[in-house]
């Protein structure tokens, strides 16, 4: 059998596929998924498992359970997007703790994006995760595992996946490739206005308690932070930044708030 031949075959039916992933599906992040969505997510997870190279550093042993958790979480943002969204990069590198990288980070971006100036700082930084262009995703495994246990708006896996989606048009700048029917001008207006609001709130000490101030560091980080929070704390985002929430609904083509309010609960996947 040639490598990836199984991807051209129909995926296993739900009664076979879902039990293999049930331990992950039972996590809070996936609450409210109906049976069909859970099955499609597991198909994407299987695809992710097969197409990525998995590397543990500093003696970290990468187990099947770890891979399943990471694969399913990483696949949630693309549940209703192009299944090829992750095909331009191959690897997931896991560290046993936060790691140090030399990072060139823009303070803000060009005036053509969100009204900033091109100031770049380069320094060694301790990271929980990093997405590298067309290269791998780097993750601190303890922090990735912790993120799966609670919905607090901090999920390093979702954060780095948002960066990867942002990079599909070349660079992480808070302006990912939009779908047909989405308005570029509206996207820019909403994100620019909310980014400025967040920076003002941060200066005044008035940021919502659930929002990581890291969102104010650059448009790219604003998109990534709000994306992870969109999936973990959708009611908070929709309440405090309703126009921004609606843009995220349009971009990800799913509405976590509606899912959690709907009639289907996690037990419907059993």
UniProtKB/TrEMBL annotation:
GO terms for cellular component: cytosol. Signal peptide: none annotated. InterPro entries: MetalloPept_cat_dom_sf (IPR024079), MtfA_fam (IPR010384), MtfA_N (IPR042252). GO terms for molecular function: aminopeptidase activity; metallopeptidase activity. Coiled coil: none annotated. CDD domains: Peptidase_M90_mtfA. PANTHER family: MTFA PEPTIDASE, PROTEIN MTFA. This is Zinc-dependent peptidase. It comes from Leeia aquatica.
């Amino acid at each position: 059998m040639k490598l990836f031949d199984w991807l051209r075959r129909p995926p296993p039916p739900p009664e076979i596929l879902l039990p293999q992933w049930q331990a992950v599906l039972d996590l809070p992040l996936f609450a409210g998924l109906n049976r069909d969505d859970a099955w499609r997510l597991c198909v994407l997870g299987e695809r992710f498992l097969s197409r990525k190279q998995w590397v543990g550093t500093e003696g970290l042993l990468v187990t099947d359970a770890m891979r399943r958790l990471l694969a399913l979480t990483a696949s949630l943002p693309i549940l209703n997007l192009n299944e090829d969204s992750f095909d331009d990069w191959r690897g997931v590198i896991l560290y046993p703790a936060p790691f140090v990288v030399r990072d060139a980070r823009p303070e803000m971006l060009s005036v053509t994006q969100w009204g900033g100036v091109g100031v770049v700082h380069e320094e060694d930084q301790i990271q929980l995760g990093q997405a590298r262009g067309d290269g791998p995703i780097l993750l601190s495994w303890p922090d990735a595992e912790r993120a799966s246990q609670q919905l607090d708006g901090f999920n390093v896996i979702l954060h780095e996946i948002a960066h990867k989606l942002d990079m599909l048009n070349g660079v992480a700048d808070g302006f990912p490739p939009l779908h047909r029917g989405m308005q570029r001008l509206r996207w820019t207006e909403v994100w620019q206005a909310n980014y400025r609001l967040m920076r003002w709130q941060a200066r005044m000490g008035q940021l919502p308690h659930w929002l990581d101030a890291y969102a104010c560091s650059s448009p790219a980080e604003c998109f990534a932070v709000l994306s992870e929070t969109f999936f973990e704390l959708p009611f908070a985002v929709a309440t405090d930044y309703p126009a921004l929430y609606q843009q995220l609904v349009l971009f990800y083509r799913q509405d976590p708030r509606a899912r959690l309010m709907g009639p289907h609960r996690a037990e419907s996947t059993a």
